[in-house]
Amino acid sequence: MQAHTKKRPIDTIEVKFIGPIINMARAIEALKPMGFVDTSDSVAWREAYPECSEEQLTGRALAGARSREGLTQVQLSKLTGIPQRHISEMEHGKRTIGKKNAKLFAEALNTDYRVFL
């Protein structure tokens, strides 16, 4: 039996339009005063690093989240109970993170655990 999962509230949306290209700039300008941002020139982060394996990408996500919070590997180790050398190996793609560790990192780094999977 499948368990009901709690969905996180979303405070942003993505809007896509189909229409004449000639009107695209006008549509973008009309939406800016309402708080919308044009992301048509952005690239998905996984596409930005095609040379990286899945482990390396999740390792970079871990290193980035840790850096964003201003933590060293030693500090993160103390917060999570995960040995510092394991954190280093995870950040360098030499060790998988796993769901249990992802949840520990997510709590310590104020993010969603799925980022690390």
Describe the structure.
The structure is a single chain. The protein is mainly α and 117 residues long. It has a domain at 45-116: Orthogonal Bundle (434 Repressor (Amino-terminal Domain)). It has helices at 24-31, 45-48, 54-68, 73-80, 84-91, 98-109. Helix 4 crosses helix 5 (84-91). The mean pLDDT is 85.
- The CATH C-level name of one domain is Mainly Alpha
Largest sheet: none
Radius of gyration: 19 Å
Overall mean pLDDT stands at 85
Query: Within the CATH hierarchy, at the fold level, what is the topology of one domain?
Result: 434 Repressor (Amino-terminal Domain)
N/C terminus separation:
24 Å
Give the quaternary arrangement of the chains: single chain
Strand portion:
under 5%
The CATH superfamily of one domain is identified as: lambda repressor-like DNA-binding domains
What is the 3D shape?
A: elongated
Query: Number of helical segments?
Result: 6
Q: Considering DSSP H and I runs of 4 or more, what fraction of the residues is helical?
A: 40-55%
* Tally of strands: 0
Class from secondary-structure proportions: mainly alpha
The ordered string of helix (H) and strand (E) elements is: HHHHHH
* Assigned CATH architecture of one domain: Orthogonal Bundle
Low-confidence stretches: none
Produce a short descriptive summary:
The protein is mainly alpha-helical and about 120 residues long.
Outline the fold blueprint.
Elements lengths: L23 H8 L13 H4 L5 H15 L4 H8 L3 H8 L6 H12 L8
Helix pairs in contact: 4-5
